[in-house]
Structures are given as structure tokens and as C-alpha cells.
Specification:
about 400 residues, mainly alpha, Growth Hormone, Chain: A, two-stranded antiparallel sheet, 16 helices, globular
């Protein structure tokens, strides 16, 4: 790949995740502190992201693959998204804010797959060429987190204004990206193809089914971190909480680099199990940490994000890619995405909101120790479920035959 093309794609990836990071981490703080949303109302708002994640794969399959060039779809979505982000600054109650947030996330969530599609279309060796480009997305997330914290936008609608400006610039930029024509233009689209129903046959393999079910279940406690960590740290009085939380993405970068070392020595089952165990430890650290002598526990919980995310999600994606037959790999990855960012996070957003609501003393005070122990116990239960039922060697032997 030419260096100039790699730079263009890297810039695309940087800004795409910069936009997401401009509001996602601090949304809970803004809703709870500024708009006075209750815990359940915050959870419902975050669940809109998961609803969009469940719908967006079908959107990408129908629109970008069959009708319009990918870069034009991506640019149009970002421009519309910029207008919707600005609209969010005008609403201050759940009845109006949440539906607009849903409209925005329906524009944003497809952008993740669309960016990947543009990259893969230009690559001869995606396994080697994609990671250096994708890592710029994490850098973009870190950069905006530091900016939000420095500018003190965590409880301000200005976070949406920042995201809108960058979204508009990104939308225009996308129209000048390399042309990526619709791969299936003129082909009839069946419901079975769009929904990826052929991948369901993989569920006949016990270990694959255990991985999918575990993915759904573990994303329920995971939602507590994404939805309520920033409000939690701000309530405790941590200075520049959004900036401090970018340590988690720095950890993610580090563990992504050392994953091959662990993967060869530990294998799939132990890697995924370590990811789950890290979630248990993270929530225990949050439950008993404070901004005084035990502040190291809060930092420890944030640093564990690298293990929590990479060892579970990335290892699971690698397992699916290696075990599913070539003609079902895309559908199988779509199934895992639907299970995690879609169904699991949707349930988790709703559950976490209800738990925080149940342990709310007043609008600015919560029983955080009790709150964090709930996902700690839930993660431990999923860990036991996975360890007992997942059989790595058996899965390797049976996957090809089961999926044929």
C-alpha cells in the first residue's frame, strides 16, 4: 500500500473514533449532572447505541453493498450526524433527547463497518496492513478524551458541538476517499443473506454456542463500565476524569501489541477467561477504591481495560475467524457483533440504569460500592459458566464439520 493512501485511511479512522469518543464516555455525566436524568433514564439513553448496533449491519448490507459507493454513504451519514449532534444540545428531557440520540446513533454506528470496508477494499494483505491503520482510531479516542477533560466539557453540551464540527469535516473528507463501489450492485438481496442466517448453523457446535452466549452475558456487566464510570469518578471528585479514563485506551494499545505473545502460550480459552477475570477484579477495585489513599485502585480498574477488552473481544473475533468456514466468516463476525455491542450491551444498559437507580441516595450521591459489586458478581458467574462449558480442543476439531 502506498504511504499516501495509508495516511488518508489513517486520518479517516482517527476522526471516525474521535467523533464517537467526543460524547460516548462523558454522556452519562452530562445526562446525570446537567440534565438531571435518573439512573434508568441514563441507561435507556445508552441503550439507543445498542439498538443502532443491532440495526446497522442490515443497513450496511442493503445500502453500501448494493446501491451506493461506500465513501459516499459514509460521508453522507457523518454530515447528517453533525446536524443531529447539534440538535442534541437543544433537548433537556428524556422524551425528546433519547429519540434524537437514537437517530444519531443510527447514522454513526454503521460508520465503523463502512470505514473497515473502505480499508479492506484497498488492501492486498489486510492482516498486516489493517492494524497500523485501525490503531489510529484508538489514538483518536484517546486524543478527544484528553481534550474533553482539558476543556472541562464532561458535563457540558459543548461535547456535542465538538463532535458535530469534527463530524462535518469528516463527512466532507469522506467524499475524497478512494472510490469503493458497491460489491453486490444489481444482485438480488434475500432476507436470509441480509440477516446472515446461515451463520446460525455454527451454533450447533457447543463451544461456539458457549462463546456467543458468554458474549451476550458478559456485556451486561460490561455496560456498567461504559455507562457509569465517568459519572462515578466525577462524583468521587477525580480531577479530569475523562482524561484519566484514556489510560484504559493506552492499556488497550499495549495489550493489543503483546497479544500474539500471550495467544501462543495460553490459547483461546485461557485468554478469554483472563479477560473475564479482569472484569471481576476491575469492579472490585472500583467498589473499594477512593480518591484518597486507595486511588490506586481506581487507576488499576481503568488500566485493566486493555485486558478486559483485548483478551475477550479480540480473542473471540480471532477464534470465530479461524473456526468458521470462509463463506460464513463475515456472517459469523456479524453474529458476534450483534451479540455483544447489540443485544448484550442493550440489556446491560437497561440493567445498569435500574441498578444505579436502586442505589441512588439523591441526584448527586450514590451507593457506588453496592453498585459495582453487582457487575463484579455477574462477571464471576459468566466466568464460571464459560470455564465449565467451553472446550477449546473439542471446538477446534468440530468447528469445520459443524459449519460445513
Amino acid at each position: 500500500m502506498r504511504p499516501a493512501l495509508q495516511v488518508r485511511l489513517s486520518v479517516m479512522m482517527f476522526f471516525n473514533y474521535f467523533i464517537w469518543g467526543s460524547w460516548y464516555v462523558t454522556l452519562g455525566t452530562y445526562l446525570g449532572t446537567t440534565l438531571k436524568f435518573s439512573g434508568p433514564e441514563i441507561g435507556t439513553a445508552f441503550s439507543m447505541v445498542s439498538v443502532a448496533a443491532m440495526i446497522s449491519p442490515f443497513f450496511v448490507g442493503m445500502i453500501a453493498d448494493r446501491f451506493f459507493a461506500t465513501e459516499k454513504v459514509l460521508g453522507t451519514l457523518h454530515i447528517i450526524g453533525a446536524l443531529l449532534l447539534l440538535a442534541l444540545t437543544q433537548f433537556d428531557n428524556p422524551a425528546s433527547f433519547t429519540p434524537v440520540l437514537l437517530l444519531y446513533t443510527l447514522c454513526y454506528m454503521p460508520s465503523i463497518a463502512l470505514c473497515n470496508s473502505i480499508c479492506f477494499h484497498q488492501m492486498q494483505n489486510p492482516g498486516k496492513q489493517f492494524p497500523p491503520i485501525r490503531v489510529l482510531g484508538t489514538v483518536g479516542w484517546i486524543a478527544v478524551g484528553l481534550m474533553i477533560g482539558f476543556l472541562r466539557f464532561e458535563a457540558s453540551p459543548d461535547q456535542f458541538v465538538l463532535g458535530a464540527v469534527v463530524s462535518l469535516v469528516t463527512g466532507v473528507y469522506c467524499f475524497f476517499l478512494p472510490h469503493t463501489p458497491p460489491k453486490l450492485k444489481g444482485n438480488a438481496a434475500s432476507i436470509r443473506d441480509i440477516l446472515g442466517l446461515d451463520a446460525l448453523k455454527l451454533m450447533r457446535n457447543v463451544s461456539f454456542a458457549v462463546l456467543v452466549v458468554s458474549s451476550v452475558l458478559v456485556c451486561i456487566p460490561l455496560s456498567f463500565y461504559y455507562v457509569f464510570t465517568n459519572p462515578f469518578l466525577n462524583e468521587l471528585g477525580m480531577e479530569n476524569a475523562a482524561g484519566k479514563m484514556t489510560i484504559g485506551q493506552m492499556s488497550e494499545l499495549f495489550f493489543m501489541l503483546v497479544m500474539p505473545f500471550f495467544f501462543v502460550r495460553l490459547g483461546v480459552k485461557k485468554m478469554i477467561a483472563l479477560g473475564m477475570a479482569a472484569w471481576v477484579l476491575r469492579y472490585i477495585l472500583f467498589a473499594f477504591g477512593d480518591t484518597g489513599p486507595l486511588i490506586w485502585m481506581l487507576y488499576g480498574g481503568i488500566v485493566l481495560h486493555g485486558i478486559c477488552y483485548d483478551f475477550f473481544f479480540v480473542t473471540g473475533q480471532i477464534f470465530v475467524d479461524r473456526r468458521a468456514p470462509e463463506h460464513l466468516r463475515s456472517s459469523a463476525q456479524g453474529m458476534i457483533t450483534f451479540a455483544t455491542y447489540g443485544l448484550g450491551m442493550f440489556i446491560g444498559s437497561m440493567v445498569s440504569g435500574q441498578v444505579v437507580g436502586a442505589y441512588t441516595i439523591n441526584e448527586n450521591t450514590h451507593q457506588w460500592q453496592s453498585i459495582w459489586l453487582v457487575p463484579a458478581v455477574a462477571s464471576a458467574v459468566v466466568f464460571v459458566f464459560f470455564m465449565v462449558l467451553f472446550r477449546e480442543k473439542k471446538a477446534e476439531k468440530e468447528m469445520a464439520a459443524t459449519a460445513a
